[in-house]
Amino acid sequence: MTQTKALIAQGSDQATGKTILIIDDDEHLLLGLTARLKTNGYAVVWARDAVAAISIARKQAPDLVILDLGLPAGDGFLVLDRMRALADLIAIPVIVLSARDPADNRRRALDAGAAAYFQKPPNNHEFLMAIRRALGETVALSTFLKT
Amino acid sequence: MIPEGLGRLEAGARLPPAVSTYSPHQLGLADEDGELELSATMRANLLDFDAWGEVLKMYGRTMRVAVALTDSEGQLVGECHNPQSVWTLVREAASDWGTGCPFCITKRLPCAAVADAVRLGAVVVVHDEASLTHVAVPLTLGKQSLGAIIAGQVFDRYPEPLLLRRVAKDFGISAQELWDIAKKERPVARGLLLASGELLAALGNAFLQQRHGKMLEEKLAETNDRFRWLAEGIRDYALFTIDTTGRVTSWNVGAERMLGYTQAEIKGQNFSFIFPPKDIQRRAAETQIREALRTGRAESEGWSIRRTQEQFWANINITALSGPEGSIQGFAIIMQDTTERKKIALVLENAQQERGRLQESFLSHVSHELRTPLTAIYFFTTNVLDGVFGDLTPEQHKHLALALDNITQLKDMVSDLLDITRVETYKLTLARQPASLVKVASEVLSTCNTNAIAKNISLRADCAANLPFVWADPARVRQILTNLIDNGIKFTPDNGTISVKAKLFGQDHDFVCVSVSDSGCGIRAENREIIFDRLAQVQSSGEVSRSGLGLGLFISRELVSRHGGRIWLDSRLGHGSTFYFTLPAFSLAKYCSHIFSSPNLDAGSVTLIAVDVVEVKGGVQADILREIRQILERCIHAGQDVLLPATGDEGPIVTFFIVACTDPKGSALIAGRILKDLRNFDKTSQLNPTLSSKTVLVDRGRLPEEQIHEVAAQIESSVQEHLLSTERYK
Whole-model pTM above 0.80? Predict the structure, then answer.
């Protein structure tokens, strides 16, 4: 708890200038997760279905994508595949955040090019660490070792 | 006056012994031993008058006597009247003849001829009140009396008018008429009567014997028939014998039918032709014969093949056949075609799997659906709690922290729900690796500490020094420990203690035993067995607490047993409980045993190659590590080298260890391959791989077992040494 607080405090001081696209159809999740990401200095954009996801991603060119697997108009794997096939999206790191059982889906998601897989609900601290790692941000070694 | 008893003639008293003691036994007609008690049906059959009638009629006509057949009680079975005029007249006049002797004309003394004949087993001659004579001949089979034949109703002297007059009076007929008939009768000589009785005895008993024999034959035929039916009924079985080299020596009809070969074409062939080609390659026949040689029998189930190449599922039973000196002469093989049974079993199994699959998909759906709102609640709560929207009052903070505790509990329950279906569908997967119990325990303790502090419970850990790694899935060990510690906290009153201990266990120290003791209320003896069952919830005395779905211990037990360990508990009511579980210790010797074979060790040395990969930007990612492992796997020789499993201690430097049964020269070759492949994989050289190796010489003076342990111990200490040195490097 105290660690998370430290991170928030650290992040809220300065904007990172980075944008995260959350692709999820749950309005409440979008609201809750966005508040946390913004506090940590990220700009946030949303997409609520698989089709919108791709067009928003191309338009906004986010630095990172948080992707749900169960989506309207096609599932998360489809989005992942499309992103890996499009030159302008291929380099964007994707973190999967899904309610689905990791036993069946983690392997597949990582093979399809996801940087990490988290089952809902994720641990805030671990989730933020993964975001930072995927964005290639340097994490203080002391913080890292505490995980 | 007629003296009393005149109408009776005691056989023993008046007849010559040869006659009175006549018995079929002495003629050798019946077997003394092995005699069967005749059933009532059989007796009735033996005395069937349809069969006897012709014989007795012939006798009666020849001897000019009336003949009757009775059972052993003297009851009439049937009679042939070769008309005896006096007797017939009296009998027809009598309104009631009674149930006694069918022959005796008497109103006074009942005739005991049959009873006497049966009792004495001898021919008995009797006079009745009209002075007519008859003989009673016993019929016996072995020692059993079956009945008697009565023959006679002839005068053996001239009729006496006085006696006849009395009979006429008794039976209400005209004395004159009776006399007129009687005086025409010619008496038969007494000797002749006796002789004819004797003849009748021989004749009757011979006929009885013949009849009995015939009945036995019929019965035998019937039994044979039944055997034939039985043999037909077991046409599902193939029976054949082979000699010790596996060649067929006999072949029954069932085998012919089941496998499609005749005895003539198969005799002398090796019996392996009953197995499908892939089993022949695997030497299935030899394996089974060897088993039967060793233990006397072998049973197996599997696919067999018919002449038509059609495969069928068969149960094969091989029994060793011993010769007179006890040496094995060959084997009897019984095969049963169980294809149908197998099909049914498969259908059932599929149905069960389908049920499991449905249940799993339902529960995984439920779990999925629950997780979505749970996630929103989690984010909202943590956001407020962490001050995203400003500072909280202590009271607000406390209540939200409690809300978060409940969310965590709910999350665990949802996870348990999914685990339970995995247990039931055998899908619970373990990602085993050498794991440090000390590390896992300290992680769990720090997580559980929040709950413990809330109840002012002191949480202590005490792990034995030099505890080996366990061969386990660290996430699952964490789950087991969390379950046990959380349970302990739940059932321990405020200010109690919970201590976690770990030490070596088992005869060869090949297990690590972890114990979790609490100072709680204890568990009643009757509950100690059921506590590990699914949905078990033992009501605690005193405080009633919410305790999840009651799946924790059930899942823990499954996880422990899936690891090859055991879980149990020790408890005294009012003095707390201790839960124990064991996990297999990781043994380098065992893990590498397949490459530590004598030919490999004969090379003289074993080399440990350490591949260090340096972390770049926030740690090496799991998928990169996975790819590196795959590259390393490709660089080594599977039968000769082993890539040790990861310990999960991923820090700034990750080390991969390779145990290679080779000398420094060979290890340099492997190192060269690895470096080349890693550079190809990581062109920017961010991983900066470095290799080092350490060679262990094999002490050849030792026994193979000792050699392996010696080498493994040295490799193990080299691994530790390397990890410590990289630690320093950091």
Answer: no
B379·A29 Cβ contact <8 A: yes
Residues 6+ apart with CB under 8 A from B163: B2, B129, B130, B131
Q: How many other CB atoms are there within 10 angstroms of residue B329's CB atom?
A: 14
User: Can you name the residues that pair with B242 across neighbouring β-strands?
Assistant: B248, B331
Facing residue for A5 by CB, picked from B386, B418, B422: B386
pLDDT of residue B32: 42
**pLDDT score for A140:** 46
Q: Per-residue pLDDT tens for B234-255?
A: 566 888 888 888 888 888 888 8
B-contacting residues in A 5-34 (Cβ below 8 Å):
5, 8, 26, 28-29, 31-33
Partner-chain contact A141 B427, CB within 8 Å = no
Using CA atoms in the order B430, B435, B436, B442, what is the torsion angle rounded to 10 degrees?
-30
Tens-digit pLDDT profile for residues B122-168: 888 887 777 788 888 888 887 788 888 888 888 877 788 888 888 88
Closest CA to B514 of B447, B415, B444: B444
Which residues, at least 6 apart from B574, have a Cβ–Cβ distance to it below 8 Å? B521, B522
Mean pLDDT of chain B: 79
Name the residue ranges covered by the structural domains of chain A. 15-146
Looking at domain B11-217, its CATH architecture is 2-Layer Sandwich (3.30)
> Residue B383 is nearest to which of A32, A70, A103, comparing CB atoms?
A32
How far does B520 lie from chain A, in Å, by closest CA?
29
CATH 3.40.50.300, applies to B237-337: no
Contact A35 B388 (CB under 8 A): yes
Q: Where are the domains of chain B?
A: 11-217, 237-337, 347-422, 435-546+559-584, 588-729
Is the domain B435-546+559-584 a CATH 3.30.565.10 member? yes
Q: Which fold has domain B588-729?
A: Alpha-Beta Plaits (3.30.70)
Task: Tell me the CATH architecture of domain A15-146.
Answer: 3-Layer(aba) Sandwich (3.40)
Position with higher pLDDT, B326 vs B372: B372
Taking phi over 0 as left and psi of -120 to 50 as alpha, with beta for the rest, B428 belongs to beta
C-alpha B192/C-alpha B189 separation (Å) is 5
The alpha carbon of residue B249 is apart from the nearest alpha carbon of chain A, in Å, by: 56
> Which of B374, B383, B389, B473 should one mutate to test binding to chain A, selecting the residue with the greatest count of A CBs within 10 A?
B383
